[in-house]
Design brief:
heterotrimer; A alpha/beta (199); B alpha+beta (383); C alpha+beta (266); B: alpha+beta; Cytochrome-c3 Hydrogenase, chain B; 2 domains; 3-stranded antiparallel beta sheet; C: 266 residues; alpha+beta; Alpha-Beta Plaits; 6 strands
């Protein structure tokens, strides 16, 4: 009987100062996930694959998720003239990109374990270790994440775009990506809608 | 007199002409690449030294579209992923949304889904045999026999879902409409006639010496490699790995039916072809049992919402055994009418991971056969 | 090459088990000798507590002998073939081709095509191409069921529908469309508009020949070209049309009864 808690403990046993955190899933599917610190990503992946009891030999799905900056309103108690005053403060939680791995075990027939790796931010620190050396199935999918989300994978054998062409600019799956206006000029419905919008 | 072509442009004075490598770009419009798929091959003579697949010619960012439309409006888009098997695509998506929302499916709807999924498997594998033979150069005969039989299944699809290929049929918590009158009888006739067709196909193919020499030992892979590269479906089982999601996950009501999973042992093109032939017989078993046992009842969960579905916050990954392999949908909901994240796990794309390894050392003509035996559909590879 | 012909790997590849696993062996009451590996494993939708339990009893060895089907069960797959004449497989295949060729002269099952433009097969009732608007009676304008509620416009996945509602002289919505355009170069015939329409006003057509010489204007079908009578709907899909008629009639009666009740109360 393996639960996510025991998996976490086993990981911490094998890879001592790794940061592993359980992210609970509020939905009815109950698929919780393990958030793994990016520095130890490769070691943890190797452990999950090769540990004889866990044996997650099959990395089924690799994908990216884009979490934008969030503005959180919180109540903060400020001390003012020897009196505690509650004021509302807006705080910006910086966004990040996330790579999600769905692992199964074919030899043990269990799974899925959801593994998450997060980047530092959405602009400069978008580097994550590639898990392609551990599971070859991640090769194309990590390239796709690189292409559509712009995460740089260190250690990937062929870090090029997968679906878009080489000179394409931007990463279309990011939430703040703006597609170029490619409406055909002769289309009467578009023209009418534009007119309505303008009026 | 035969004219000898002038090959002098290919050599330089200091080099041994025999050591020259040739770069060859196959596709994206080659008839054997099953659509707009391109491969950059490096050849030594006729032997493949390197092979790099190039994707994206059919990319329309299905995932981005789905993140901008409602949950319901994504169903017709999933039809267009693997356009040969729209019903299993529908099912995989519906299953994921059902996991996300915690919806149950009525029993009759589960039976309908199984009947349609197995019919889809039948017609996909039937078309596959035809395409594979086409890739080997047997244009026409096998393909036409396959298509003749497949049409009968497509007729069934059309009279139920309204369309031969773009079914748009499954709904969250059930199915869209019930069988029209006489549909089950027609289906039973098709299923009863199928073994005859399979016998004929086997007689035509299985012991054909040309086919055997073109497929046996071609593109073999080891089970360890196949698992590590994430292969799924018949081509994983051809390597000898006993893994079928219908048995492992038991989604739907597959645990009520008795069927077996064919398993190969060499992992070569021949095994991959045989997996399909044998799987069809097993599908027929499931179909017969399902049609006999299908109960009456509602076909959609009354709690299910058609429009304005806002699943509770959370995420879900649902997967099924589609004819091509493991088809999964990963959804994240933030309580909006559109999914926050919509991801398709495309078996066709991931099954291509080992294309280079399978092809290296074989002749360029075998690459076509290997590619054909993987059974890709570009609508799903590029999405 | 001859050796290859003599030992076709058919037997090696899809070999019967020494003790074939029968279906009863594959059941879950696992005291049988051979466990079917995939049968005893698996987690479909496990309860959160044992989400990751493998369910595989420890005693099951990791062998792969189980699911290989037996040859005899599978039609023509030969069980043992120590020697075969080279070329006999091709001859067998030729026999199949010959049977189909001669058969196509006598057997309807082997000749399935029709001479298309002259001969046409009637599509099944549920078949669909693009949507059309249903009107009752003879007047396409007055009888149109559409009330311009914009439901289909919102739900249409590729946003092919564009509706502008009519307004009466006071500027109030008049519950009928002034403009109802469907761009059939965008429409993918998914029938979601017909499915969500609360008034049964939009239905799926069978008509397929929509080619035109011009890219934009002639592929945008307006209200007049989309409107088709209920009688036409009966000719293409009488089952659905009859059901819709009955439903609308029942609705009308209910409304009528409610109105009379209200009138009586006054």
């Amino acid at each position: 009987m393996l639960t996510l808690e025991t998996i976490r403990d086993r990981i911490l046993e094998a890879v001592p100062d790794a940061g592993v955190e359980i992210i609970s899933n509020p939905g009815p599917s109950g698929q919780d996930s393990l958030l793994v610190s990016s520095g130890h990503g490769l070691a943890i992946a190797l452990f999950l694959r090769d540990d004889p009891e866990l044996r997650f030999d099959y990395c089924s799905n690799v994908t990216g998720v884009d979490w934008l900056d969030k503005t959180v309103k919180e109540k903060v108690i400020v001390r003012e003239d020897d009196e505690d005053v509650e004021t509302q403060v807006e705080r910006v939680v910086p966004g990040y990109l996330e790579v999600v791995y769905h692992l199964y075990s074919i030899s043990k027939k269990h799974g899925p374990v959801v593994l998450r790796l997060r980047t530092a931010d959405r602009n400069e620190g978008v580097e994550l270790p590639s898990l392609t050396p551990v599971w070859k199935s991640a090769e194309f999918q990590e390239r796709e994440v690189l292409d559509l989300y712009g995460i740089r994978f260190t250690g990937h054998p062929d870090p090029t775009r997968l679906l878009m062409w080489e000179n394409f600019e931007g990463h279309p799956m990011r939430k703040d990506y703006c597609a170029p206006d490619d409406d055909e000029p002769g289309d009467p419905i578009t023209a009418r809608e534009r007119k309505e919008e303008a009026s | 007199m035969i004219a000898i072509p002038d090959c002098s442009f290919n050599t330089t004075e200091n080099r041994d002409p025999a050591a020259e490598l040739l770069e060859l770009s196959l596709g994206p419009q080659h008839p054997s690449t099953h659509g707009v798929f391109r491969m950059n091959a490096v050849l030594d003579g006729e032997t493949v030294v390197r092979l790099q697949p190039v994707f994206g010619y059919l990319h329309r960012n299905h995932e981005k579209i789905a993140e901008n439309v409602s949950y319901l409006a994504s169903i017709p888009y999933t039809d267009r992923l693997d356009y040969l098997c729209s019903l299993t695509n529908n099912w995989a998506y519906a299953l994921s949304v059902e996991k996300l929302t915690g919806l149950d499916v009525p029993e009759r709807a589960e039976y309908i889904r199984i009947i349609l999924a197995e019919l889809t498997r039948l017609q996909n594998h039937t078309a596959f045999l035809g395409f594979l033979l086409g890739d080997m150069g047997a244009w026409g005969t096998a393909l036409m026999y396959g298509f003749r039989q497949r049409e009968k299944v497509l007729d069934l699809f059309e009279s139920l879902t309204g369309s031969r290929m773009m079914s748009n049929y499954m709904r969250f918590g059930g199915c869209r409409c019930d069988f029209p009158e006489g549909w089950l009888e027609q289906a039973r006739t098709v299923i009863d006639e199928y073994p005859e067709f399979l016998d004929e196909m086997e007689q035509l193919l299985v012991s054909n010496e040309i086919l055997i020499s073109r497929t046996q030992g071609v593109g073999a892979i080891s089970p360890e490699r196949a698992i590590n590269a994430g292969l799924s479906g018949p081509i994983l089982r051809a390597t000898g790995v006993d893994y079928d999601i219908r048995k492992v996950d038991r989604y739907g009501i597959y645990d009520r039916f008795s069927f077996r999973i064919p398993i190969g042992d060499q992992g070569d093109t021949y095994d991959r072809m045989m997996m399909r032939l044998l799987e069809m017989r097993e599908s027929l078993k499931i179909l017969k049992a399902a049609i006999d046992e299908i109960p009456d009842g509602p076909i959609v969960n009354p709690k299910a919402k058609l429009r304005n579905l806002r699943p509770p916050e959370g995420e879900a990954y649902g997967r099924i055994e589609s004819p091509k392999g493991e088809l999964g949908f990963y959804l994240i909901s933030d309580k909006q009418p559109q999914p926050y994240r919509f991801r398709v796990r495309p078996p066709s794309l991931i099954n291509l991971t080992l294309l280079e390894e399978m092809s290296i050392g074989h002749k360029i003509a075998d690459v076509m056969v290997i590619l054909g035996s993987i059974d890709i559909v570009l609508g799903e590879v590029d999405r | 090459m001859t050796q290859l012909y003599q030992q076709p790997r058919i037997n090696g590849s899809i070999q019967p088990n020494q003790e074939p696993v029968t279906d009863t062996d594959m059941s879950l009451n696992g005291t049988t000798k051979y466990h079917h590996e995939t049968e005893v494993s698996g987690i479909a939708d496990p309860a959160p507590a044992n989400r990751l339990s493998s369910g595989v009893p420890d005693a099951v060895p990791e062998t792969r002998l189980s699911a290989r089907p037996t040859a005899g069960e599978y039609g023509n797959t030969p069980e043992r073939r120590p020697f075969r004449l080279p070329g006999s497989g091709i001859v067998q295949g030729m026999m199949v081709t010959a049977r189909n060729w001669f058969g196509s002269y006598f057997d309807r099952k082997r000749l399935v095509t029709v001479q298309y433009p002259e001969q046409q097969i009637r599509p099944p009732e549920n078949s669909r191409s693009i949507p059309f608007l249903v009107y009752d009676g003879d007047d396409p304008d007055a009888g149109l069921r559409c009330v311009a509620c914009h439901t289909c416009e919102k739900e249409c996945p590729p946003q092919a529908i564009s509706i502008v509602g009519e307004r009466d002289e006071n500027g109030k919505p008049a519950r009928r469309p002034k403009v109802f355009d469907i761009d059939i170069s965008v429409c993918m015939g998914c029938q979601i508009c017909a499915e969500v329409c609360p008034f049964d006003a939009i239905k799926m057509d069978h008509y397929l020949d929509h080619s035109s010489l011009e890219n934009f204007q002639s592929l945008i079908l307006g209200k007049t070209r989309l409107s088709k009578s209920n009688a036409y709907f009966h000719t293409i899909n009488s089952t659905d049309a009859t059901a819709v008629d009955a439903r609308l009639e029942a609705d009308r009666k209910k409304k009528e009864a409610a109105r009379q009740k209200r009138a009586a109360a006054k």
